[in-house]
Design goal:
With 132 residues, the chain is mainly α. Helices cover 90% and strands 0% of the residues.
């Protein structure tokens, strides 16, 4: 029932029935008489709400920035991992090429050795025939 009506007769009846409401209604009445204070009160509240809104927006922007930084760091870590894998693959390829070259050199050396042995065998086979 409190503040349920703004009609003076009903307010007077309510204050007679509930005398504890009278100081509250008097206070409300005084506030309504001084509109500058009311406007100042609302202006102050709006300023507080504006500050809170700005603070909230800043916090939201910071959170979004942190999220973006974390995503960037994750992407960078993935790139670093991929680069490390490429570097390892390149190192393995170089090592394999070196092994192929070494195998080719060894094969060429073995061919020369085989040719030498064939010549020696041919000479050895020809030498006993000429001794008979």
């Amino acid at each position: 029932m409190f503040l349920s009506s703004d009609e003076p007769d009903k307010i007077m009846c309510l204050c007679d029935t509930y005398p504890e409401f009278k100081p509250l209604y008097n206070h409300i009445y005084e506030i309504c008489l001084n509109t500058e204070d009311v406007i100042g009160f609302f202006s102050e509240e709006l300023a507080i709400m504006d500050r809170n809104t700005v603070d909230y927006m800043i916090e939201e922007a910071k959170a979004e920035l942190e999220k973006t930084k974390a995503e960037r760091d994750l992407v960078q870590a993935e790139r670093d991992q991929e680069q490390a894998e490429r570097d390892q693959t390149q190192a393995n390829n170089i090592k394999l090429r070196q092994q192929v070259i070494q195998f080719q050199n060894d094969l060429e050396e073995m061919r020369r050795e085989l040719q030498k042995l064939k010549r020696e065998l041919t000479e050895a086979q020809a030498s006993p025939k000429s001794k008979h």
